[in-house]
Amino acid sequence: MKIIRTFIISFLLMSCGGGKISSKGIDKEVEVEIKNMVTSVSIFYNSYGYIPSDCYEEMYSSGMIENNQSVIHLWDFECDWEFDEIERSFVGTITAMSVINPRNFIEYDIALDKFTVSE
């Protein structure tokens, strides 16, 4: 069992770059995943009337989002978001931290539509 697990993790690392942020900046797969979370939380909020307490698990189990499992396994996501009643939009941040190298992280400011990448 341990050999199979090691093989799977090795395969994921080779196929996804190991959670490494490219020299060009942001990992494009993580960017897509974060944007999907923002779109899905809006749909979830309109359907259920509340914001999920996590980044994707509740939306995934309700069928509101499809996750790229290789990204989900290599990055930890934290969502600090809320719905701004005045602006009628979501505000806050989504942070993705590499499982392989926790010094690699990507933060997305929802209101500004801006990514910040660790140095």
Short synopsis of the structure:
This protein has helices at 2-16, 28-48, 57-61, 69-74, and strands at 75-84, 89-98, 105-109, 114-117.
Give a verbal description of the structure:
- This protein is of the alpha+beta class and 119 residues long.
- It has four helices and four strands, in the order H-H-H-H-E-E-E-E.
- The longest helix has 21 residues, at 28-48.
- Mean pLDDT is 81; it is low at 1-25.
- It is globular, with a radius of gyration of 15 Å.
- It has helices at residues 2-16, 28-48, 57-61, 69-74, and strands at residues 75-84, 89-98, 105-109, 114-117.
- The chain has one domain (2-117).
Distance between the termini: 37 Å
Please indicate the percent range of residues in DSSP E strands (runs of 2 or more).
15-25%
Give the strand tally. Answer: 4
Helix content: 25-40%
